[in-house]
Specification:
196 residues; mainly alpha; 9 helices; elongated
């Protein structure tokens, strides 16, 4: 070391309280995402409980039933089918879905929710305007309210249900496809009519 370098080294150690280095040793890590060790059921229970506490929704369905509603929704079951399975009214299933922010693509396909979202007219007036029943207008307003609630939470709960229920089906399908593709590739060109 020359004199200038040694002088700089001394200044550095004085400034850093005698530390020889200011860098930390690097660790070999395998990714930055933490793995959630809870089961899917535990995670679903947690999401439902958080939503129940945050929104204080009233339902006769237990958390376990609400998880069942969410699962059936992702399996493509209708409110009537889910209601029959749980022995409740379809209106209860609809309200449970809205409370869980589980809005189907066909829940409001007859009306533009954005158009009725902030309308102050009563249900009968809007029903006449859209040529639907007052009950349907109340339903559409509930769907719009659930969408607003979900957006206010940055769709956090809906995303969690998607990752737990929709992605699970997708990954299962992908695994099946890979297995089938792999078997097809492995047996391609092989003779199958072999006599022993």
């Amino acid at each position: 070391m020359n004199e200038k370098t040694e002088e700089l080294r001394d200044i550095f150690t004085d400034v850093t309280d005698g530390e020889e280095t200011v860098t930390e040793s690097q660790e070999n890590t395998r990714g930055s995402l933490e793995r959630d060790e809870r089961t899917t059921e535990e995670r679903l229970e947690s999401v439902v409980q958080q939503m129940r506490e945050r929104y204080a929704f009233e339902t006769s369905l237990s958390n376990e039933d609400l998880i069942g509603v969410a699962k059936a929704f992702y399996e493509g079951d209708s409110d009537d089918e889910i209601a029959a399975d749980f022995g409740v009214d379809p209106a209860d299933v609809f309200e449970a879905r809205m409370s869980l922010h589980l809005i189907g693509e066909d829940d409001a396909d007859e009306v533009d929710l954005a158009a009725i979202r902030n309308r102050e007219e009563d249900d009968a007036t809007l029903a006449d305007e859209y040529d639907v029943s007052s009950a349907q207008i109340r339903r559409y307003r509930r769907i719009a309210a659930a969408e607003d609630e979900s957006r206010a939470a940055n769709d956090r709960y809906r995303d969690e249900f998607n990752s737990l229920l929709a992605d699970a089906d997708l990954s299962e399908q992908m695994t099946t496809d890979v297995r089938e593709d792999g078997l097809g590739d492995a047996t391609e060109g092989m003779e199958t009519d072999v006599e022993f």
